TrEMBL record, chain A:
Family: Belongs to the binding-protein-dependent transport system permease family. FecCD subfamily.
Name the record gives this protein: Iron ABC transporter permease
UniProt-annotated location(s): Cell membrane
Keyword Transcription regulation among UniProt keywords: no
Organism: Nocardioides daeguensis
CDD domains associated with the record: TM_ABC_iron-siderophores_like (cd06550)
Superkingdom: Bacteria
PANTHER family the record matches: ABC TRANSPORTER PERMEASE PROTEIN MJ0876-RELATED, FERRIC ENTEROBACTIN TRANSPORT SYSTEM PERMEASE PROTEIN
Topology in the lipid bilayer: Multi-pass membrane protein
Automatic annotation (TrEMBL), chain B:
Keyword set includes DNA repair: no
Organism: Nocardioides daeguensis
InterPro entries in UniProt: AAA+_ATPase, ABC_transporter-like_ATP-bd
Protein origin, superkingdom: Bacteria
GO molecular function terms attached to this record: ATP binding
Protein name: Heme ABC transporter ATP-binding protein
Length: 341, 258
């Protein structure tokens, strides 16, 4: 069960990456995409792209974009799974509860005030700190006695999102034309114009975050028992919480720092995995990472091919699809929990 | 062996425990009884390490409880709480197996599967093994949590009203198992409301009221009409049923008939 699910998701991700890299104004058939990659890593197998500009297009535009889409999808879905674990609530998600926009505000400030002390890492570090602060606020305000009530969590998210969107509006008011455009583009969420430099920042953040999430997986299972019972079976709850909150902030920052706010991936993917494979985090975390990567790569493909010569904001698309899903989840959890608890 | 000495606990302005001593040696089952709000669950929380007492100390296996790391204490004592809850739809088997987590990556983990199966059989939840925990009834959930505590295989077992949601058959079964675990050498502390049940299964009964131990000793010494009537502020009769005390409340209608 475990092996086959991960194998299926890995296969799905490979298909997403190959198809995603081939589609666009310049069409490259999947076999040629594979051939190009294999030749680049020293295996002379498969056909090389026939179009004269195909090789450059693939390596300078398409590959960084699909790889970043996969990394961001993996980071968001993993962040969602971990967050739901520590909140003990399947409705927790970085964007829904305002962690993504917290990261966005911090990153937006860096853009507007033109801070660049850490080079290409400046925005990522700012996003991490903003996300960390937001996660802590949500956590402290919405959790009581080891559980988070749905209604408290969602209301806390509303308040935090209201404050952060006000802060983003203020930043747009302060910024010049260019900063303004950058922030708008960014609150919508987009992978447009991705370069390898962005991948180089996001990849290590996502990798570290997912690796730590895997290490925490077994203890996240135990946390489902509630704080006290988790302690009774040997979990140092305070330490686990702190580690998990840092992981959520790190993964959210990885997703937000170049691509802006992409909502609901962290909600939909872990939920689907739970429906198929049960709630155990040892499988949930890696399956969410792979599933999120595949989903966002496909979503990005859709975003840039749905309308000719237009690159739709991917954050808009995920919200369009994820919003109704969220409503359905709220109704369902209301029914199963017998009220707003 | 678990021993509490001079435990004081205050919550806000209220003194919940006011100098409580309790020692439970291996092989003994002690029942904590007393009226609502007397501090029984708080005392159990102190023994479990959940509640830090303002004064006094708990010794677990000869060492202060406060010196244990979370995982280490979980290898020495298991706890069943009054409230069962689970955030996600884990199966019963998974929940019981969570009791094995303190032994993860130790030589004892080799027996995990067998221990989990035996615990489920002992608590009569083995036929529910594949069911999702949240879909169980209150009593089934309580028995699953009891199985989880048993699977932990600790020398100290702390149970907070394990029989509250159970039917008569399962009440007797759960306390029978707790009794057996004690006879196998564990120190068992059970919070109970049913005094007759406590009398039938406990080696000693500890009556707690207003944060104090009002009486402690073998059931027939502790369960007297005077003490219980005073502590519960309701008159009771203590009857003898084949050598075991049975406690029944006095009801106005019955008194009139006599």
């Amino acid at each position: 069960m475990k092996g086959s699910l991960l194998a299926v998701l890995t296969g799905l991700l490979v298909v997403a990456l190959v198809v995603g890299a081939g589609q666009g104004q310049l069409h490259v058939p999947p076999l040629e995409v594979l051939g190009s990659v294999l030749h680049r890593i020293g295996i002379d197998l498969g056909p090389l792209p026939t179009h004269p500009r195909a090789e450059d297009t693939l390596w300078e535009v398409r590959f960084p974009r699909v790889v970043l889409a996969a990394l961001v999808g993996a980071a968001l879905a993993t962040a969602g799974a971990v967050m739901q674990g520590i909140f003990g609530n399947p409705l927790a998600e970085p964007a829904v509860v305002g962690v993504s926009s917290g990261a966005a505000v911090a990153a937006g400030s860096v853009i507007v005030f033109d801070v660049a002390v850490l080079g290409s890492w400046t925005i990522a570090v700012a996003a991490f700190l903003g996300g960390l602060a937001a996660t802590l606020v949500v956590y402290l305000l919405s959790r009581a006695g080891g559980r988070t009530e749905v209604v408290t969590l969602v209301l806390t998210g509303i308040a935090l999102n209201a404050m952060t969107s006000a802060a983003l509006a203020f930043l747009m008011f302060l910024g010049d034309q260019q900063a303004r455009e950058e922030i708008v583009f960014w609150t919508l969420g987009s992978l447009n114009g991705t370069r390898w430099a962005a991948v180089a920042v996001v990849a290590p953040l996502a990798a570290i975050g997912i690796a730590v999430a895997l290490v925490l997986a077994r203890r996240l299972d135990l946390l489902a028992l509630g704080d006290r019972a988790a302690f009774h079976v040997g979990v140092d709850v305070e330490r686990l919480r702190l580690a998990a909150i840092v992981v959520v902030a790190l993964l959210t920052a990885a997703a937000v720092c170049f691509c802006g706010i992409i909502a609901f991936v962290g909600l939909v993917v872990p939920h689907l995995v739970r429906m198929v494979a049960g709630p155990g985090h040892l499988l949930l975390v890696p399956a969410s990472a792979l599933g999120g990567a595949a989903l966002l790569t496909f979503a990005d493909l859709w975003a840039r091919t749905a309308v000719d010569n237009a690159d739709l904001p991917i954050g808009m698309l995920t919200s369009l699809v994820g919003g109704p899903f969220f409503l359905w989840l709220i109704r369902r959890s209301r029914r199963t929990a017998g009220g707003w608890s | 062996m678990i021993e509490a000495r001079g435990i004081h606990v205050t919550l806000g302005d209220k003194v919940v425990l006011d100098g409580v001593d309790l020692a439970v040696p291996p092989g003994e089952l002690v029942a904590l009884v007393g009226p609502n709000g007397a501090g029984k669950s708080t005392l159990l929380g102190v023994l479990a390490g959940d509640v830090r007492p303002a004064a006094g100390s708990v010794q677990l296996a000869g060492r202060p409880l406060s010196s244990y790391a979370a995982r280490e204490s979980a290898q020495h004592r298991a706890v069943q709480l009054q409230q069962q809850g689970l955030a996600f739809g884990f199966r019963v088997r998974d929940v019981v197996a969570m009791g094995r987590s303190p032994w993860h990556r130790t030589p004892r983990a080799a027996g995990d599967e067998e221990v989990v199966r035996a615990a489920m059989v002992r608590t009569d939840v083995d036929r529910l093994a594949e069911r999702a925990f949240p879909t169980l009834s209150g009593g089934e959930q309580a028995r699953t949590s009891f199985a989880r505590a048993l699977a932990q295989e600790t020398p100290v077992l702390l149970l907070d009203e394990p029989t509250a949601a159970l039917d008569i058959r399962h009440q007797e079964a759960v306390l029978g198992v707790a009794r057996a675990v004690a006879s196998e050498g564990a120190a068992v502390v059970v919070v109970l409301h049913d005094l007759s049940l406590a009398a039938a299964y406990a080696d000693r009964i500890c009556v707690i009221a207003d944060g104090l131990v009002r009486a402690a000793g073998p059931p027939h010494e502790v369960l007297t009409e005077d003490l219980l009537g005073e502590v519960y502020r309701h008159p009771v009769r203590v009857l003898d049923h084949g050598g075991t005390p049975v406690v029944v409340p006095v009801r106005a209608a019955q008194e009139a008939r006599c």
